[in-house]
Amino acid sequence: MATLAPRCRLLGPTGPRPTALRACAAVSCSRRAPVPPHAARPRRVFLGLGATLIDSVARMASGGTSDRTFVAGARPRQGVSPVVQILKNVEWPDEFPFKPEDFSRFDESADTLFYSVPRFVTHIDDEAIRALTQYYSEVLPPSNTPGVAILDMCSSWVSHYPPGYKQEKIVGMGMNEDELKRNSVLTEYVVQDLNVNPNLPFEDNSFDVITNVVSVDYLTKPIDVFKEMRRILRPAGLAIMSFSNRCFWTKAISIWTSTGDADHAWIVGAYFHYSGGFEPPQAVDISPNPGRTDPMYIVYSTKKTV
Ligand SMILES: C[S@@+](CC[C@H](N)C(=O)[O-])C[C@H]1O[C@@H](n2cnc3c(N)ncnc32)[C@H](O)[C@@H]1O
């Protein structure tokens, strides 16, 4: 069962969530998150520059008719997903549009503490997982392709690859060794806090695919990490960042917890764009039952060949 707190609700649409993780995933990624007593600075309740940019991009993507509610809700209108639309014909600002505080978090304690206890759970519902696995079955290199290497970044005890999927090298990177040890698709793993050390301990041009499931929102140095992803990907190598609308909100970055699904696609797209060396990022909405079960979105790009 899924455990991450959904945006603006504690109980998912398919029934009650387990209580085990309420202590860490207790409430949603909501703008109404309470300010903790120890917080010296007020938590931003709305976006600054980023919001303006995201809004204007959204308006452009929807033919000028968009408003913030429409963007944040990310519900397909007339069959068009705002999450997909928002990365169509983007005119990226010249400068990286985010401020350092956009990458601050409610809980700034060491991530090693938060992830010290293994969580043998899933973080999105079964329908979303099925949709992701189906997507992977269409885009990942066929099982047992000689020479293929895959990195599952921010991995756990599951990678959601198709059943029986194998490659010579599938590396998992994550925060909890017990979880990674139990992930049967991995051929090796690395425990590393990417917010402390964003350098990926791999050679240049050594991976064909990088996956990252419901975790891009925890990266506080995303551009450093994405530049590293570009470095280790082979030319035309594929990076697949997937996300839903759930998160450990205390550990997700501020710009994520104060924006909606389509904004999230724009944010991840921006990471690809401003890291350089990637083809224009694309979004795919693979939500299995829009509005009824967990949504599932992909933002992907490939490393430029020249
Ligand atoms: C919500 S879980 C998702 C795990 C897995 N991808 C899945 O789909 O089940 C978030 C994951 O992000 C990873 N993560 C969070 N903060 C991290 C950090 N600072 N450095 C590296 N990985 C991190 C952890 O390994 C954790 O398992």
How would you describe this structure to a colleague?
It is a single chain. This protein is of the alpha/beta class and 306 residues long. It has one domain (44-302): Rossmann fold. Helix content is 26%, strand content 15%. The chain has 10 helices and 9 strands. The chain has helices at 22-25, 49-61, 68-73, 82-85, 111-114, 126-139, 177-181, 222-232, 254-257, 261-275, and strands at residues 5-6, 149-153, 169-174, 188-191, 207-213, 233-243, 246-247, 282-285, 297-302. The strands form 2 sheets. The protein has a 7-stranded mixed sheet. The protein is globular. The protein starts with a strand and ends with a strand. Mean pLDDT is 82; it is low at 7-52 and 56-75. The chain binds S-adenosylmethionine. S-adenosylmethionine binds next to loops.
Per CATH, the class reads Alpha Beta
Q: How much helicity do the residues have?
A: 25-40%
Give the terminus-to-terminus CA distance: 43 Å
Which outline best applies? globular
> What is the N-to-C succession of helices and strands?
EHHHHHHEEHEEHEEHHEE
Q: How would you sum up the major sheet?
A: 7 strands, mixed
- Tell me how many strands there are: 9
Could you tell me the strand content as a percent range?
15-25%
- Report the mean per-residue pLDDT as an integer: 82
Helix tally?
A: 10
Name given to the CATH architecture = 3-Layer(aba) Sandwich
According to CATH, the fold-level topology is Rossmann fold
Q: How would you write the strand order of the largest sheet?
A: 4-3-2-5-6-9-8
Q: By helix and strand content, what is the structural category?
A: alpha/beta
